Amino acid sequence: MSDPSSTATPAAASPSSAEQPPDRVSPPPTKMDDTIDIFLRPEYRHLTFVNKEQAEYTNLSYWQRIKMNPQVIFESCLGRAVSSYVMGGALGLLMGGFFHTMQPIDVDTTLPFRQQVRQAYKGFGEASVSMAKGFAVCGAVYSGVDCFVERARGSHDLNNSIYAGCLTGAALAYKGGPQAMAMGCAGFAAFSIVIDSFMSTGDKDVHKW
User: What's the N-to-C CA distance of the chain in angstroms?
Assistant: First the structure.
């Protein structure tokens, strides 16, 4: 007769000796995970898309911005108009003096040299100042209108120059009546097309109609 102890079932294996499942490995991140991570950033979770420096700069007044960055002056339409007024006036002075010297001069050679010089350059200052005023007003009106049209349309193309040229020509010829205003509009618009077509620096789409 066999010994009962020899037929006893083996003891159950302890949990420590049992086979453990392998550690779970996370899959590598995908492009979708990267995209989702972008929207989990603090600026999206708290809806703060403007950093502290930008917020402080936005809250500054116009004159405080100018003090921090003088270039802000030329970013405004008023600044562009004023700068064009000054540059147009300087160009008008040179052009007025040049055209005045090209006119035929009737000088009395019997007079002393100083009087001959005065007679030769008589009206030089008036001609220069007159042309300077015209160039200054034209430049200021054109730059201001071009800036306002550009911001109103939200684009930077040839149409802005056409509209600005037309409005400038009409404004400068308003004293001559509707016909003169129409001629001024057409003339300045055509001139603007020619200038932008030949002098474009590439930052403006001159062929966009």
Answer: 112
Spatial distance between the Cα atoms of 104 and 119, rounded to a whole number of angstroms: 12
CA-to-CA distance for 175 and 179, rounded, in angstroms? Answer: 10
| Interval 144-173: pLDDT, tens | 888 888 888 887 788 888 888 999 999 888
Same domain? For 83 and 142 the reply is yes
Both 130 and 142 in a single domain?
yes
Model pLDDT for residues 44-54, shown as the tens digit of each residue: 554 444 455 55
- Single residue among 55, 75, 95 that ends a domain in this structure: 75
pTM: 0.57
Domain range for 95? 79-147
List all residues 6 or more positions away from 3 whose beta carbon is below 8 Å from its beta carbon: none
Place of tokens 């618009």: 189
Phi, psi of 205 (to 5 degrees): -80, 95
How far apart CA 143 and CA 167 sit, in angstroms, is 11
